[in-house]
Description:
The chain is about 70% helix and about 5% strand. By secondary structure, it is mainly alpha-helical. The chain has a three-stranded antiparallel β-sheet with strand order 1-2-3, covered by helices on one side. The two termini are about 25 Å apart.
Amino acid sequence: MPPVGETWQRMKRVMKEDPIPCLIFGAVIMGIFVGFFIRSTQPTPYTVYMLGFPGELMIRSLEGLVLPLIVFSVMSAIISCLQSSSGSDQNKALGIGWKAMVYYTFTTCVSITIGVTLTLIIHPGDPNAKPPSFKFEEPAGEDVIDSGSSLDVLLDVMRNLIPNNILGATMWQDKTQYKQENVSQLVNNETVYVTESSRGLYRMQGANILGLIFYAILVALALDRMPENGQVLVNIVFGLNDLIMNILYLFMWFVPLGVCSLVASTISEVVDITKTAQMMGSYTITVLIGLALQFQTYIILYLLICRRNPLKFFARQARANMISFGTSSTAAALPANMQCAIENNKVNKQVVKFMLPIGAAINCDGIPVYEAVATMFVAQMNPDSIVLNAPTIMNIVLTVLAASIGAANVTNTGLVTMVIVFKSIGLPLEAIGWLFTFDWLLDRCRTVLTMSGDAFGAAIVSKLCGLPDEVEEFDEDIVVSLKDLRAELNGSAIRV
């Protein structure tokens, strides 16, 4: 194992190559100080508004990239998985691929369930501590009396999953509403007006993320069935995905200023700073407990299937975990994660070479926990606008699942997926800057959890496939391939 000094030098080199995470952390600290200073001057509402204006521009820039980002990310991720299952030994590759997909899907669903359950139990969101600038979606019209029953919400989810207009899905969602109508009736030769409620659909402003992802999956599957004629389109999809990634990376240089602006404006307008601090502490603890429970899921699966000590396995991945925590980047820690899995834990080389790069592209188990808690947390601040019944929670689960898979390989995943989920559910995007106050810590914990989940998953899939443990040294071919992979990842601005 390389010495700690070498690991530290690699961490510093990666942070020098991509200083955005460090700049965001500094922006959060600066925003806190500026917010308390402005708060002490008793600012006017217009001053608070102008203080948060750069943050509004940041949110608008991210909103503009959400649709192409999620569509091309989902398509490229699915096409990559399907193409990686082909080769000379296709049956073995398919066996590894399907088991890997089942593992990733299962752990992602478990992480979302953990996040939702913990938020319902702990209930960190407090309506009394909601900042005035957080504007939730209001019903469409004053005559709306009900947003529909639980069955209506469930049907809306299914209806939006299969939109009847692809272009319309980029602009609106269908939602059931019950409205009051005055109906005239003739009683004893006299006209009497009776108030009745009528059920109907209206178009709620905001992109239909579930519908877009559904069609993106269909297109990716169709392209895989066109090996010759579809290759040109596949290259276009990959090219557009790289283009969006690079545009997003350029926008990320504006994020520190935007985060500083949002944090400062939010702190300056909070009514009860003590109650707000308690609520944010409860939110942070909820996320950390969720990440810890998700780690227990890996331990239990590894213990049941591999019949080995999971703590020793985790300890042998220490170098990769140090790099992932220091850099908050799975792409930067991917070579070390693969090397530790093969050299230290003797996981089959073929499984490692397949699962870990794919996991860096489509899997991020720390994000679903975080996004589920964040979404439920903000929704709990305004129970009048968002009723957290079973269908609504299922809508949150599906959206978080789709967003975490579709944007797992983008720069600052937590920020991007939060924009996607909040727009789909109808939550105020202004809350994102508020939640970013503690994201510098939570992001690193999420990254370590994701790297550990990929390594545990490789060992579990290797055992399920009946493949032998790796006994060879970490050969030069893999070192070269890892360097090429890392160069490709950095060239595509991939950071998790």
